[in-house]
Amino acid sequence: MFTLITLPYGLDALDSVISARTLTFHHGKHLQAYVDNLNKLLPGSGLEELPLEEIVAKASGALFNNAGQVLNHELYFTQFCPGGRALAAESPLCKQIVKQWGSLEAFQDEFVAKGVGLFGSGWVWLSAAPDGSLVITQEPNAGNPVTRGLKPLLTFDVWEHAYYLDYQNRRPAHLTALWQILNWAVIEKRYTVH
Ligand code: MN
Fold first, then answer.
1. For the chain, how many structural domains are there in total?
2. What pLDDT digit, counting tens, does each position of 92-147 carry?
3. Ligand 1 centre and the CA of 99: distance in Å?
4. CATH code for position 114
5. What's the 90 CA to ligand 1 centre distance in angstroms?
6. Are 96 and 189 members of one domain?
7. Do 166 and 112 reside in the same domain of the chain?
């Protein structure tokens, strides 16, 4: 039985970038619905005892869609904090980003461009391959990089429900603003813990 995660900040804490109204719907209505659907679909699937990441890696159809959206949103909501937290220059993650992209800014530009360029609904991801190298992928709908054998580190939700109340059609402005509230300490930890 899965339950709705508690947000690690107040509903109005990210207000400069994500309004309380958006969070109320996005967390309280959209994510709650995915959790409820997942709990309805799991019994009899043969995957009931598995951790969420393994359910997503093995499921298909409606079960995949709802389990994927629960995992995606848990990773998404827990990576933010009021005011954000900077990426530590000495961290293994920062060193790997600079090695592959030249600078954090160059990485961020490509990440946002891949989110802007994703047609329709989905997610843009930064993930780690088993050898520690990093990759940016676009996943449509409920997609998650665990289905490609990658470890998901960072994600921006490009479904319109994530930004339409605050930004309407301005997806590029919304994605660019998300860096202001990103807690890089969380992303560093996801990269370190394998
Ligand atoms: Mn969403």
1. 2
2. 999 999 999 999 999 999 999 999 999 999 999 999 999 999 999 999 999 999 99
3. 31
4. 3.55.40.20
5. 32
6. yes
7. yes
